[in-house]
UniProtKB/TrEMBL annotation:
Keywords from the UniProt entry: Membrane, Signal, Transmembrane, Transmembrane helix
Secretion signal span: 1-31
TM regions (residue ranges): 267-288, 295-316
Organism listed in the record: Homoserinimonas hongtaonis
Protein name per its UniProtKB record: Uncharacterized protein
Length: 332
């Protein structure tokens, strides 16, 4: 195979950064949208939610960031086709319970409103920083009872979260430093930008969700054991199949033939799906470049704030800063 296949990555987001950087114009393009609009962020939120769920499920299964395999562009089509075939045998993803504003919805709306505000605020910083600031101003910088159920709940009165000031930015910088999230700001912003470009592909979202279901199924299975090491072995076998010139159909058939004859069909489908996902660029990009990039923020700033003292210090100054936002909103 020309160029070969390179295992591992230089960093967790190595595959995501290249795309996200080239998409630097995505956020400003949203600047003409009204602050209350959330529709443009909807499909982006689906990619974010599916990618984060798949990344977490693969981690729980035992797949480390360095286990994903970076293939050359010339080989990408083969491994994407293998993944499509492998995941086609799996049941359709179970729809998640309806939620007005999911974690992905929050991130997508934060990026959208950051672009809106940046167009009217000369003090705005980088798109990634502004995305994080808007995430904090809308969902973290207040008591839980004020968050609301919709992503844009606090954009205008009485919180004016869409009208942050330099005082907010300084407070957020200090909070992020205390939470050890300063280094996550750029990767989080780049991940949200990448999701905005990948939006609008139902098949991609479906495949990512199937990977999440497969990894979770294998992790929770009680009557049959299939380990992460076994999945890595199957991924290596797919590499050999490609080197031998096999078609995607032949590669899947060989993979299934190598599994234990006692393995139930549902387990076999999940096993081949996870193995194929380790190689398919169309899946590795969102799971690694998006999912693993947003998880630290979701975890540290989730339903239970990891550092309660830091959060308490932030919201202690919140009301004073809100008055500055209101004055900016009023043009004072």
């Amino acid at each position: 195979m020309k160029g070969g296949i390179v295992k591992g990555m230089k960093s967790v987001t190595a595959l995501g950064i290249g795309l996200a950087v080239s998409l630097a114009t995505v956020q400003p393009a949203a600047a003409t949208e009204a602050p209350q609009t959330v529709n443009t962020a909807h499909t982006s939120s689906e990619i974010l939610d599916a990618s984060a769920r798949a990344a977490a499920a693969m981690q729980d299964f035992g797949i480390a960031p360095g286990n994903y395999i970076h293939v050359d562009q010339a080989d990408a089509a083969f491994f994407d086709e293998v993944a499509d075939l492998a995941l086609a045998d799996m049941a359709e993803p179970t729809p998640a319970p309806g939620t007005a504003c999911t974690p992905g919805g929050r991130a997508a709306y934060a990026a959208q409103i950051a672009a809106v505000n940046s167009a009217r605020d000369s003090n705005a910083r980088t798109p990634a920083q502004e995305t994080m600031y808007m995430y904090l101003s809308h969902y973290i910088d207040m008591s839980p009872s004020h968050v609301g159920t919709t992503c844009n709940h606090n954009s205008e009165a009485p919180r004016y979260s869409a009208w942050i000031t330099s005082s907010d930015r300084n407070a957020y910088d200090q909070f992020l430093a205390t939470m050890n999230l300063t280094s996550a700001v750029t990767t989080f912003g780049d991940a949200v930008s990448a999701a905005g470009v990948l939006q609008g592909s139902p098949n991609l979202t479906r495949n990512i969700s199937k990977v999440a279901d497969a990894a979770a199924f294998l992790t929770e299975a009680a009557d049959f054991t299939f380990s992460a090491n076994a999945a890595l072995g199957l991924a290596d076998q797919l590499v050999v199949s490609h080197q031998n010139g096999d078609t995607a159909e032949q590669a899947i058939a060989d993979l299934e033939a190598s599994l234990s004859p006692d393995m139930p069909t549902t387990y076999a489908a999940a096993a081949t799906g996870v193995a194929a996902a380790l190689l398919a660029p169309s899946i590795v990009l969102p799971v690694v470049g998006i999912g693993l990039a947003v998880l630290p923020v979701y975890t540290m700033l989730g339903a239970t704030i990891i550092n309660y003292a830091a959060w308490s210090s932030l919201i202690y100054t919140s009301n004073g800063r809100v008055s500055g936002r209101m004055m900016r909103y009023l043009g004072m």
